[in-house]
Amino acid sequence: MIGFLVAFQIIVLVVASSDPSQKCYFAPLPSIPPSKDHRNIPWGKPTIQYTNGTTCCSSLDEIRDHLDIIDAQLLQLLSTRASYVREATRFKTTLADVNDPFRNKEVIQGAVHDAPSVHLPQIVAQKVYEGLINSSVLFEECIFNTYVDPKEHHGTAGTCHQSS
Predict the structure, then answer these.
(1) How many helices (H) and strands (E) does the chain have?
(2) Residue 2 CA to chain centroid, in angstroms?
């Protein structure tokens, strides 16, 4: 069912509790003056450790390869989510029912609240979920607006209008 996740390696994020970057995982982000450092690459210590004890990563290309795999997985998950969003539209009686601000806020706040438990910066969760919810509402409105009721239009069998 979710076999595409098999390629995902279990990782542990290794960050010391005294690491000042920990502040970057909570909202609001701290006000920090921009660094003027010119650093030798790679700087700092690896923060990703695989279950076999090795660490990531030895190059930016290696990191990008991992990100490409994750991006492909995210696209698949977003596609599945969009399928459920489309299904949810079938249970909305009016266009006004499509956008439920209370539910939208609840989903976004839940993601922000839960983000630290998976070591995701809250600002990332907030911005991603705001975009996800807002674009899902637009998609759902389109589905709602393009549906043709077969009872009212003979021969179209519950299809969507094709825009030209």
Answers:
(1) 4, 3
(2) 17
Q: Kindly state the tokens that stand for 6.
A: 């098999």
> Residue 23: which residues within 8 A CB-CB, separation 6 or more?
29, 30
- pTM for this predicted structure: 0.79
Residues 6+ away with beta carbon under 8 Å from 148: 156, 158, 159, 160, 161
Specify the amino acid at residue 136: S
| Strand bridging mode 48-50 / 11-13 | antiparallel
Q: DSSP assignment, residue 55?
A: E
Beginning with the edge strand found earlier in the chain, give each strand of the sheet holding 55-56 in spatial order: 11-13, 48-50, 55-56
Closest CA to 25 of 132, 125, 131: 125
The model's pLDDT over 91-149, given as tens digits with 9 standing for 90+, comes to 999 999 999 999 999 999 999 999 999 999 999 999 999 999 999 999 999 999 999 88
